[in-house]
Amino acid sequence: MGLLGKFLRFLLELGDCCKPTGGNSESLGPHGVSAATVGVSGLAHDLFNFETTSQVPEGLSQHVVSSKKAQANWYRKLVETWREAKPPPRTDEEAATLVIQTLKGHKKADVQGLLAFYGLPHPNTLVQVSAGVPTSLPQGVKFEFQTLPVDVKAIPDGDTVTVYVSTEDPRESSCVPSDVKTAAIQRSKARAKKNYTKADELHKKIIDAGYRVLNVQNQEILARKYRIRLRGIDSPESSMPYGKEAKQELVKLIEGKSLRVLVYGEDRYGRCVGDIYSNGIFAQEVMLKKGCAWHYTAYDQRSELARWEEEARLKRVGLWASSNPEKPWEWRKHRREAR
To answer: Could you say which residues form the signal peptide (predicted)?
Structure first.
């Protein structure tokens, strides 16, 4: 099995993880009806098919201006580039970058049409992010922690997330309340005896104390709850224009990931104000560069955040596609005054 075949198999084994969120799976994608025809998995599928049949996908001609012969030439180039990529693309952004770089010099309408065919990001929305995380803690950081994988339901909007930290973490282990420890032990015993009513009562006591027992890879872990407010940015509220898109961008970035969080302090709502890194990617940088947030200058003066917002403004991406987007802090103020 070639590299493309192996990667296609890898994508199919991911199952639900490859399916776009929302919508009817029977109508996904411009040229098919399943998750295998959308985004990076769709492109991998069609490149694998081209490698074995020399046929370009049906329906592509409706999205591009060049002939079938030219399309076949693109796919030959893409197959070669994909083979040489180490590692191969695993996200829609990586796949879009590969297409753009491989077909550099081809007609703009063809490149954009090919991206649209697979639902891949438009060139203007792709961003280059800084590599790595700080090697030393930035000034003002009070503490840091590593989270357990983030649940999608814990992401209400584009600048807030609820996370959990294992109590086996050295910083946490010394401060777990004794009644929480006792309740966790008693809950485990109740479940072993299949007394689920008692176990649920004990878990409610644990939750009320700010903890939760999570099942991670078939292992039960007692974890502490933290609500995080991303420092230095303000995304549209969920009911504002572009609010849903901002939330979805943060979901794409952190869902299922174990995050590194640098905490600077606490806001008036009891949330930790911090910087979030997901697989080494600085979340606030992505949100600003993709036009999913404002730089929240009232609470953060970092020049790089101002620069990233300006980059998105100039490209008119995300919320900046609107000529005069309403600022979320002003929107909240108007809502308070209207009560």
So the answer is: 1-17
